Amino acid sequence: MEVQGRHLTQPEGSGRAGWKGLGKFQTSGRGPPTVILEMSYQWSWPFLFFPGIAFSNGERWKVLRRFSVQILRNFGMGKRSIEERILEEGGFLLEELRKTEGEPFNPLFMLSRSVSNIICSVIFGKRFDYDDERLLTIIHVINDNFQIMSSPWGELYNLFPSLLDWVPGPHQRIFQNFGNLRDLISCSVREHQATLDPNSPRDFIDCFLTKIAQEKENPLSHFHMDTLLMTTQNLIFGGTETVGTTLRHAFLALMKYPKIQARVQEEIDRVVGRSRLPTLEDRAAMPYTDAVIHEVQRFADVIPMNLPHRVIRDTAFRGFLIPEGTDIITLLNTVHYDPSQFLKPQEFNPEHFLDANQSFKKSPAFMPFSAGRRLCLGESLARMELFLYLTAILQSFSLQPLGEPEDIDLTPLGSGLGNLPRPFQLRLLER
């Protein structure tokens, strides 16, 4: 799908997304080959409505996104410099993984700390030691909140916020967690303010503080302390959870299908060898590995729903009248599991992304980073992290399940905001 002006358009030949309305109108399913709904950039979701970049509306969203994209690029997003940071952090992760010495462990915490350090280095200007209390707080908040948001409690709260405000349950913990993360970010912002040099910004926070100062006389400015705190929180959340969750899905799939794991390792050994870490330049020569990573993203479908858009006027759709103000969600899982686009969508099969010559092939129905104007601004970073982390780990280790491979369950534990893999332990065998 693509957004053209104020219209969300589904091109001919692409996977056909389902639509789900929030509010008075609800439906899902496939539309005709071309579906056009007039929508704004606006939306609301009670759990997630904050003044940061991810969940803002209208002009504020456009201004904050444009600014954030530019600053992230200035600090290496999608460039060689950020690749060097990932490779460095990957080295620290490999050291931690070796300390497991073949004993069973749950990889969630270890992966989350490492992945989070990449975006933290851009935002705060430094990486954290793995036992740093600030990093541990970030990981706890993000993991706990993502799990709750992907549970029935999260779904219920978004449907009945005014009612569930008065009902005890794990959903109440989300706001406390976000408050703890906000306090951590506020402390870092104060440290930055005390040492700020507008002519020599060190990181994202420095750039945002400078922008606030530049626009302090503008009463209509979107740059103030609240948007700094929430935009920073949005970036940390998005830059930590999705990649870490995808890697855990990958571990499960590769343990369930050891022949696929072995073929990826063979390609790594042939193209890269053992004397150096894989780099992004190697990806073009590793079509099977690239296909496996894409299939993990398709099959896991970590974020099954696009962020909502809001209908800007009454719209007729398939015999229904969608009232102005209705929030519309694109169901990305209907694209990733469309049998017209993937031969056997219910099966994990890297051949979905390989042609007859075993070369990598793209699919127009592949959109794990969402679709439309709210396309994930960290897509390039996430793609780099997934390739560099997974290849570095498989170059050094084989992933071994504690039980039989065929007993591994790839169905998600919870499905709401995200599809969470079931908790698991594994052993790493050094190669």
From TrEMBL:
GO terms for cellular component: endoplasmic reticulum membrane. Pfam families: p450. GO terms for molecular function: arachidonate epoxygenase activity; heme binding; iron ion binding; oxidoreductase activity, acting on paired donors, with incorporation or reduction of molecular oxygen, reduced flavin or flavoprotein as one donor, and incorporation of one atom of oxygen; oxygen binding. It is a peripheral membrane protein. InterPro entries: Cyt_P450, Cyt_P450_CS, Cyt_P450_CYP2_fam, Cyt_P450_E_grp-I, Cyt_P450_sf, Cytochrome_P450_fam2. Keywords: Endoplasmic reticulum, Heme, Iron, Membrane, Metal-binding, Microsome, Monooxygenase, Oxidoreductase. SUPFAM superfamilies: Cytochrome P450. It is found in: Endoplasmic reticulum membrane; Microsome membrane. Its cofactor is heme. Its main location: endoplasmic reticulum. Heme binds at C376. Transmembrane segments: none annotated. One of its GO terms (biological process) is xenobiotic metabolic process. Residues 1-23 are annotated as: Disordered. Belongs to the cytochrome P450 family. This is Cytochrome P450 family 2 subfamily F member 1.
